[in-house]
Design a protein that fits this description.
Helices cover 27% and strands 11% of the residues. The chain has 143 residues and is an alpha+beta fold. It has a single domain, classed as Muramoyl-pentapeptide Carboxypeptidase, domain 2 (2-Layer Sandwich). Strands 1-3-2-4 form a four-stranded mixed sheet. A hairpin with a 6-residue loop joins strand 2 and strand 3. The radius of gyration is 15 Å and the shape is globular.
Length: 143
């Protein structure tokens, strides 16, 4: 099994500084789950696309320089997203609806290498993270 290139999983700030070594910050469970998911689904999984000139840059690891994180800080709000601990990704799978992806994961949960959380009812992406202490294979939550 091979991991995703780092630029697909980390924000541009982290990639600029660390390049492919940026994966050293990742929670190993997330890397294992993503690799399992992509290999088992046997389809492309789209996370960050800025490395190929695309628009997505904050769908994986987010550092303190990322706008989503800065906005919360400036608003004097805590931002404890699993994205800031390299435990989460938002993604799409071409030609699959968000709900189809969630249902596919549910059907295959017995094969997953670790327990995950899935954000319910997202539109335009699916959020998966490994920030769970649950004994359930999948914990669904509202953001």
């Amino acid at each position: 099994m091979e991991y995703f290139p780092a630029h697909e999983l980390v924000c541009p700030h982290v990639y600029k500084k660390y390049g492919e070594r940026a994966l050293m910050f990742a929670d190993q469970r997330l890397l294992d789950w993503l690799t399992w998911f992509r290999d088992t689904l046997d389809r492309p999984v789209i996370i960050n696309t800025y490395g190929e000139g695309g628009q997505y840059s904050q769908r994986g690891y987010r550092c303190n320089l990322c706008q989503l994180v800065k906005d919360k800080t400036y608003a004097d709000e805590m931002y404890l997203s699993a994205h800031t601990r390299f435990q989460a990704v938002d993604f799409n799978v071409p030609d699959m609806l968000d709900e189809e992806i969630r249902q596919w994961i549910e059907r295959h949960k017995g094969m997953m290498p670790c327990n995950i959380r899935i954000e319910k009812n997202t539109v335009g992406w699916v959020h998966v993270d490994v920030a769970t202490d649950s004994l359930n294979k999948i914990t669904y939550f509202n953001a």
